[in-house]
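User: Hi! I'm working on a homework problem where we have to compare a predicted structure to a textbook description. Could you give me the structure for the chain below?
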Amino acid sequence: MALRPAPLWLPVMVAVSLLRGSCLGTSSHSLKYFVTSISEPSQGQPHFVEMGFVDGQVFVHYDSNSRKEQPQVSWMEKVGKEDPQYWDRETQRARGTEETSRGNLEILRNRYNQSEGLHTWQLMYGCELRGDGSKGGFAQYGYDGKTFITFDKKTLTWVAPDPQALITQRKWDADPGKNQGRKAYLEEICIEWLEKFLSYGNETLLRTEPPVVTMSSRTEVEDGMETHVCRVHGFYPREIDASWTRDGEVWLQDTFCGFLAPNADGTYHYWISIHIDPKERGRYRCHVEHDGLQDPLDLELKEPTDSKSNLWLIIIGCVVAALVVVGGITGICLYNRRQEDYNAVPRRNQAI
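Assistant: Happy to help. Predicted structure tokens:
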């Protein structure tokens, strides 16, 4: 089965949650779904897209042009072999979500008293299995790039920051059984499927790639101060502790952190910079800890050479790469429906 690349065009809310988050701590794993419905997409682009991510990497995809739920990684083909009806079932679910999303866009346009034009209805939901064994889950809807309504697992209620969402909040909270079902999905069934997907893709998702750490520096012409950049590249999993230390202690002053972002091969890159007095250069280190390293790394700062252009090319390159990745991984997703086991889960987009 040929794997079709996922689109990177969606002009909607950035899914920063895939890239953001603490770089500290032991490895964690996540399963997230992002759904976006667009009222008037550009010519040739689908008006509806659903994408699934395991550990920040696209593994399933559906859009209104293909109208099929399709795998984006080779290890997902194992699912179809074990459950021949899996892809047909997921396709039907996604089609139902697509239809409901169209209706929600029209309802919201009237509720906000808006004219026709470009509007987006978005949904994001998922779960996380952390390195310490704790679990997390979330479900959130958005309209036109802003949060519309969010599910609170603790109170089993919906939170509506926008007055226009109060109608939806009252409607959804009137059915406590469905809210309990959402909680059960996020805390139990979603985790079960995350563990199953990890077992399917264990060679990829559970691998360990140590980081390659490089240093670059320059002397500022204006004040004689030095800027040093510590670039950490090619590591997996994404959890990493990269920081500047001074005299062995973490030093946050005069530092700048880049985005933690994925590479094309599924590994990650990250960078941090610091602005210091050259007289104190020997007090600083770039400290890196990662599961792929037997021992932490502590890199000394070197005296700058004629590397002004190279340094800033690295910084600009890192920023551009991060923006491209963040701009490409977009949308906000869905979640609703209860079927037997996985299919008995509230994953279908709910009418507002």
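For your comparison, note the following. The first helix runs from residue 77 to 82. The two ends are 37 Å apart (CA to CA). Good luck with the assignment!
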